Prior knowledge:
Elements: E1 6-10, E2 25-32, E3 38-44, E4 58-64, E5 69-75, E6 89-95, H1 108-111, E7 118-123, H2 124-130, E8 142-153, E9 156-165, E10 172-175, E11 178-183, E12 188-194
Antiparallel strand pairs: 1-2, 2-3, 4-5, 5-6, 6-7, 8-9, 9-12, 10-11
Amino acid sequence: SPDGMTLFGAMQSPLLQDGGTNAAYTRILKIDLVTGATNQYAYALTNIGSASKPKYPTISDIVAINDHEFLVDERDGKGLGDGSTAVFKKLFRIDLTEAQDISLLSGANALAPAAVGKTLFLDIVATLNAHSIGSNDIPAKLEGVAFGPDVDVDGASKHTLFVANDNDFVGTVTDSLHPTGIDNPNRFFVFAVDAADLPTYRPQQLANRTCK
């Protein structure tokens, strides 16, 4: 959280008690860093596929907008480094204000009615495509999200949102989509966000804290 008092994390994929990696719901964990108290919340995955298509239910990061709203990085495993074409890499906005604690629940049927609502905030593939970055060249593992400093763009102040990939230490990729080889560095894609699109955003203001 922006004040550094609470830590939030997301399970990359659904846990065994909720149906395993092909299930539709995963968990977000909240930890009070002073008392050690925890809460868990259900998150409904969008990209769970179908019987005819492989399933990629994956969360790679969660970043705080404020102490109760977050951006969740939900993605497939396709793109540069996988020998395939990126399709699904999106940031969803959620609000845990009235979310139900599911710490004592298990199973998809129990989690479904408790799942937190979410709205699409950024379709990364579509946005990069619109800026001449083809789906073949979008990294498969876009796994890091963070807010950066505000910047001035044509006289208007904008928030910056950094999205980074994990290249698994593979510096060059040669596959059917890149038969002559292509560099595969760690990349940082930086998006400018209007303040009006995140009116409740609070930047990190971390100080020395006494944690449990």
